[in-house]
Amino acid sequence: MGRYTAPPGLGISLSVQVAPEQRPDQDTRIDAHLRVRAAAVGPRDRIPAVDIALVLAVDVAAGRRDAAVAALAETVSALPDGISYTVLGGGASQCYPLTGRWALAGPDDRRHAAFSVGRIAAAEEGRPPTGYTTWLARARELFAERALPVRHLVLVTDGGSRSEDDDAARADSALSIELTRCEGEFTADVIAPGAGWDPAPLIAVAERLHGAAASSPDAFAPAVATALGRLRKVRSPELPIEVAVRPAVREVTLTEIAPHQQRLEPDPAGDDPFRLEFRTHQWQPESRDYLLTLRADAGNDPLGVPLQLAEVTVGGAAGAVVVRWLPSGTAAATAGLSGAAGRNIHTMNVSTQMRTALNHGYAALDLESRERAEAQLGLAVRLATEIAADWVLDEVRKVARIVDGPQGHVLIGPAVDPGTVRQGLLSITSGHPVELPPVPRAGPAVRCPHCDHPAGAAAVFCIDCGRQL
After folding, report:
1. Considering only CA atoms, which of 151, 230, 213, 272 is closest in space to residue 425?
2. Which CATH number fits domain 10-43+235-336+439-455: 2.40.10.10, 3.40.570.10, 2.60.120.40, 2.60.40.3670?
3. Is the pLDDT of residue 439 over 80?
4. How crowded is residue 322: how many other Cβ atoms within 10 Å of its Cβ?
5. pTM for the whole structure
6. What superfamily would CATH give domain 49-232?
7. φ, ψ dihedrals at 33, nearest 5°
8. Element housing 336 (H / E)
9. How far apart are the C-alpha atoms of 73 and 114, rounded to whole Å?
C-alpha cells in the first residue's frame, strides 16, 4: 500500500458508481462500478525504444520455416532505433545476435539481423517437443540480464512445441510453475500462425503475463508490429488498485470488465486484513471499467445514514463506496439496481455471464461436446441480445445458426471447422469492451487533514484513521 502517486506521463482519475440505497442483511452484496481514466501527460506519445527489451521467439515446424524467415526479416528491419532485442529459434536456441546475448537496433544492426535470421532453426521432427515452459524459462533468463523498464516476450508458435508439461489447467504443472516465476519479470504476447495449436496454454501465457493472444497468417510481421506498437504506448507497466474497507465488509472481489474481462487476485497489504491491493498492468492512455463487489454485514449499522463501506485509490485518485441501509418494507423496494448506477452494474454483470458462456461454448465445441456447446452459446446469445453486444452474435454465427436470439436458441451444424473454433477462443480473449453510458467525472479528491490519506469526494470520514474529513 501507499503507492498513491500517478506514474510519470500518466494522469489518473477515478469515478465510483454505486446504488446508494441498499437492503440491510448479514450478507448484503454491494456492487460498485469503477471507471479509471488514464490520460497522457507530457510531450511524448510513445515510450522511448531504449526503455524496451524484446525477445522474439519463433517456434514453427519445418513447413513454415521459409515464411517465418521472411516475416522475421521484415520484423527486425522495422525495429526502432535503440530497442534491445534477441531472436530465438527452434529449441529456444539463440539465432541473433551472433555474438553476445542482446542486440541494439540501429541501421547497421538491422541489416545484419535481416540477413542473419535466415539461419533460424525450425522445430525438429522426431524429437521431443521443446515445450512452452522452456521458451518462457529462456526468456526469463535473458530478461534477468536486461534491467529495463519494459521487458516483453513475443512468442510466435504454431503449436508444435507443446509438451505434456504444458497443462494450463493444473496448478502443479511445469507451465503453471514457470508462469508464476515469470509474473512480474516480463510481459508476453502470443501470435499463433495456422490452426493446429491447443488454445488453452497460449491463452494462459497471455493472461498470466498480461499480454494478448491472437491467431495470425504465416506472414506474422504485421502482428508483431501491432504488438510492439501497443507496447510503446504503455506509460505504466504496473498500477495498483488499492481497496480499504470497514470491518463489517467480509469479502472483496474486483473484476475488470473492459477492455478485457479478468478476475483480479488481491495481495494483502502487510498485516492489515482490511486493506487489499489489486495489481493491474500495461497502462496506456485509456479508460478501464471494473466491478467491485463487497459482502457486508449490516447487522450493527444504523439505518438511513450514509455509510462509507470502502475507499478505492489508484494512481493518486480516490473514490468512496457510500450507501444507506434502508428499513424493511415498501421504502426498501427501490434499493439495489436502480438509476444510472444500477443499470451500468446490471450491464456489467450480464457482460461477465455472457463472456463466460461464450468461452464455455467454444471450449465445449473444441472438446466435441455439442449439446453443452449449444446450451452455452444459446445463453451467450440471449444475454448479448439483452445488452446489444453484437460482436457476440458475430462470434456465435461462425460456428452455429442463431434460431431465436432473445430466447437463446442456436443450432450447431453437422460439421464445424476445428481451426475456426480455436481461432475463436483466442478472439474471445482479445477485448470487445462492453458499451456503457458515460460516467460523470468525480469531484476533486481530498486528503485527510489528520493523516494525509487520500479520500474520495463523497467520503465523510477517513478510511485510514477514522476521523472526520
Report:
1. 213
2. 2.60.40.3670
3. no
4. 19
5. 0.82
6. von Willebrand factor, type A domain (3.40.50.410)
7. -95, 120
8. none
9. 4
